[in-house]
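testing teh design pipeline on a random one, pls ignore if ur not involved
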């Protein structure tokens, strides 16, 4: 599946989210790709195209797009959203291993 951003693209065909949705995006830039992406980006995705109508919350964490799955801030925020339905204003710092374990446990529960 290749994600694109055109008017008829698959992501744009999804419509408004009718479920609790939180979107986590990176805020680190890659100099080369950031020159070709419009506005703020995480090195792969522009901030504007990372949003979806109906999302409950949108946050960015200090990470490149490709590092989000292992970024402590992203893991902590994902865990908080799964448990509480909202992101933390300030991510609670957990050791990386513990954050990954808690995120896995939370995902299994839901």
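output:
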């Amino acid at each position: 599946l290749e994600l694109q951003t055109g008017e008829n693209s698959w992501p744009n065909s999804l419509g408004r989210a009718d479920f609790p949705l939180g979107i986590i995006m990176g805020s680190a830039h890659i100099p080369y790709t950031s020159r070709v992406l419009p506005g703020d980006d995480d090195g792969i995705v522009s901030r504007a195209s990372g949003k979806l109508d109906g999302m409950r919350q949108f946050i960015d964490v200090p990470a490149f797009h490709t590092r989000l799955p292992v970024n402590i801030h992203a893991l902590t925020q994902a865990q908080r959203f799964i448990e509480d339905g909202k992101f933390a204003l300030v991510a609670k710092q957990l050791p990386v291993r513990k954050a990954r374990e808690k995120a896995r446990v939370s995902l299994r529960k839901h």
